[in-house]
Amino acid sequence: MKILVTGGAGFIGSNFIHYWLEKHPDDEIINFDLLTYAGHLESLESIKDNPHYSFIKGDITDAKAVDEVVSKVDAIIHFAAESHVDRSILDPLIFTKTNIIGTQILLEAAKKFGIKKFHHVSTDEVFGALPLDSDTKFNEETSYNPHSPYAASKASSDHLVRAYHDTFGISVTITNCSNNFGPYQDPEKFMPRMITNLLSGQKVKVYGDGKYVRDWLHVLDHARAIEMVFLNAAQGSTYCVGGMTKDVNNLEVAQKVIKLLGKSESESIEFVTDRPGHDRRYAVDWTKINKDLGWEPQYDFDSWLEKTVKWYQENESWWKPLKEKSESIYKK
Ligand SMILES: NC(=O)c1ccc[n+]([C@@H]2O[C@H](COP(=O)([O-])OP(=O)(O)OC[C@H]3O[C@@H](n4cnc5c(N)ncnc54)[C@H](O)[C@@H]3O)[C@@H](O)[C@H]2O)c1
Question: 175, 241 in Cβ contact below 8 A?
Answer without folding.
Answer: yes
